[in-house]
């Protein structure tokens, strides 16, 4: 019984890693712009497809590259190209509304439409057929007692932890991070200090979208079946995880993602799989009822 619990907890850490990486992107954009970028889950999908096409391109090349070498090239290229997609959305869809002082409701609706455009654009150009992500690394199974873990699962968990610490260092110890925190505090005073607000917002989208791209690669390698709507549900769940952790706080997004993964996996281990989302979201709703600002969120007053 105890071994089964530990096995499920390890599996939950892998699943929670996907939620955490996507939730970090949500909370970065919200922390700076107070914008809920509902297209973020579909940027995750775009990252998975970009990784697929890059991997197939290198595999079909004449260089005879090995899987690990291809993976080492695919990861940074995917993160770069996915960040380009995120910046394009910001420049085309969000920036004009921001400059016109549009109500936040219109920006949220625009974000939803951007997500639908990405989904249906993928469907129109690439078709509805699912794609199988190639196996780039040989899976190695490690057994500790009756608990089994693969090198891929370990890599996913360690990657999410490493990304969190790197991102936390960027936010807390760099000038760009200081500017991002300054914009979240008072976006009207920051330009008066000579800080280019559009540049900082662009960097925010680069960071958030590249994290979604990394999550897309790791997810595609772990569950190698891609479809145009793969980012919708996992994106919504990651957003809920960010809210439960305390939207706008990267520590909250990180913990919230793992919390959702643990609750989901343990619910599936104890109850039928059809009860997974019902139980998981009921527990998360109770947390929000007790602490409406999330686990690490702080209530903020609005100046009048």
From TrEMBL:
Membrane topology: Multi-pass membrane protein
GO molecular function: L-isoleucine transmembrane transporter activity; L-leucine transmembrane transporter activity; L-phenylalanine transmembrane transporter activity; L-valine transmembrane transporter activity
Keywords (A to Z) from UniProt: Amino-acid transport, Cell inner membrane, Cell membrane, Membrane, Transmembrane, Transmembrane helix, Transport
Keyword Cell membrane: yes
Pfam families for this protein: BPD_transp_2 (PF02653)
Subcellular location: Cell membrane
BP terms from Gene Ontology: D-alanine transmembrane transport; L-alanine transport; L-isoleucine import across plasma membrane
Record protein name field: Inner-membrane translocator
